[in-house]
Amino acid sequence: MPPKGKGRAPAKRKLAAEFPVGEVLTDSAKKRWKIGPPIGKGGFGLLYLANEDSSEAVGTNAPYVIKVEPSDNGPLFSELKFYMRAAKPNLIQSWVKSHKLRYLGVPNYWGSGLHEKAGNRYRFMVMDRFGTDLQKMFEQGGRKFPRKLVLQLGLRLIDILEYIHEHEYVHADIKASNLLLSYKNPNQVYLVDYGLAYRYSPEGVLKEYKEDPRKCHDGTIEFTSIDAHNGVSPSRRADLEILGYCMIQWLCGRLPWEDKLQDPVYVKDYKFKSRNNISEFISKCFSSENKPEEMVKFMEAVKSLGYQDKPAYQKLRSILEAGLKSIGATDDDKLDFSVSVNGAGPSSTKKATKRKIVEVWGVSDETDIIPEKIRPSPERKVAEAVYKKAPVKKAPVKKAPVKKVPVKKSPVKKSPVKKSPVKTSRVKKSPLKKSPLKKSPANKDQVEIGTQTTPGLEVRSRARGRPKKNA
């Protein structure tokens, strides 16, 4: 089938060979860049520390990185188109000033070109150096971000998306692993990886809504938009829908369709149902006391957008700012990743209670226990009774039956019941003694013999006595 064939095609692409430290690359503007040690690997390319060419070696504090891929590959070529059109330093700085921003989380494009080595051609691009990605921070924090942090990240991403949308592009792959902290300032976050970036409005002409089965489910399956599931090219509303899914996951830890990511149709249907009833969708993700109303409003605003509509960016900012205000916080430009900040997620008290239950039940995975199901459960009452060791006080009751064991010996004392058959046997012999005394008192010797011999012998003795009487 075409979609499957398309999915396997990238695996046939060549992998980039590793360049030696100190190799010099010359970009299309004739600027020379010296490569340092590799610091990362993508699907088809390598990432090197880099600096402007000089006699000195590239140190660990180098401010640039160079991304290198074989020239036959497509991702970097697509990414380069975006950077060359929309990420030049002068364009970014002009936007920051005109919109009175502190900074804009779009990487600066410093140069690109082709490099030949051992008969092979490679495409490269020079960018700013960054620190860790937010996916690592998300995992380290127990798959939860503070509510304040999530709303701040949402505000920064709205700034980024408004900029790239105004420059005719959409990103189409927003997620924590594509959000990097600045190398110099950990309070700044940047959206990277424009390999799926799409020019939705070339020369100001908007693309029309058109479904293509060959493009179904493009992007990262858990976050991609309903349009992408239907095979429609990315749009501005799709970027904001993806952002909404990301923020919800960062707040609650897990999207409800993540249990079947291998089934894209299931994920699509679940998202479609969630869009039809956003309030119910948010309720499934959060407990009633932690339900972020700003996320309901944000997703409702995105739902109201048409495929070609321009989003009301300021309205979306206002929704998130109201969310900050509701928890007594402000956008202070400080990205605090500690989970206990401003009621984002479970408090330390709730965590302690949860761990206590896990220890009692001997469960190693805390996420397997759902508080709503534990509270009314009768099994929990039994477990708590065992944990409090209540039966220990009544332990002597178990020893009491041991002292009253004589009850078992009482039948032994009444064993004369077994001797009763002996008495009845004597009763059987009594008629034998009386019968000869009444019938033949003259033959005492014969009676005695009869009583001592078998019944047959007694009959014979009586038969012999009769002839004597007749004589």
Structure write-up:
Keywords: ATP-binding, Kinase, Nucleotide-binding, Serine/threonine-protein kinase, Transferase. With 471 residues, the chain is α+β, with helices and mostly antiparallel strands. It folds into three domains: 12-128, Phosphorylase Kinase, domain 1; 131-343, Transferase(Phosphotransferase), domain 1; 360-393, no CATH class. The protein contains 19 helices and eleven strands. It has helices spanning 2-8, 75-86, 89-98, 134-140, 147-166, 226-229, 236-252, 264-276, 278-285, 293-303, 313-326, 348-361, 371-374, 378-388, 396-403, 406-413, 420-439, 444-452, 455-470; strands at residues 24-26, 32-41, 46-52, 64-70, 109-117, 120-128, 130-133, 169-170, 179-182, 189-191, 198-199. Strand 1 and strand 2 (32-41) form a beta hairpin. The longest helix has 20 residues, at 147-166. The model is unreliable at 1-11, 342-395, 422-430 and 432-471 (pLDDT under 50).
Percentage of helical residues? 40-55%
Strand content: 5-15%
Structural class: alpha+beta
Number of strands: 11
CATH class of the largest domain equals: Mainly Alpha
CATH superfamily of the largest domain: Transferase(Phosphotransferase) domain 1
Identify the CATH architecture of the largest domain: Orthogonal Bundle
Number of domains: 3
- H/E element sequence: HEEEEHHEEEHHEEEEHHHHHHHHHHHHHH
Query: What name does CATH use for the topology of the largest domain?
Result: Transferase(Phosphotransferase), domain 1
Which blocks of ≥5 consecutive residues have pLDDT under 50? 1-11, 342-395, 422-430, 432-471
- Helix tally equals 19
Family: Belongs to the protein kinase superfamily.
Domain Protein kinase: 33-313
Binding site for ATP: 67
Keywords: ATP-binding, Kinase, Nucleotide-binding, Serine/threonine-protein kinase, Transferase
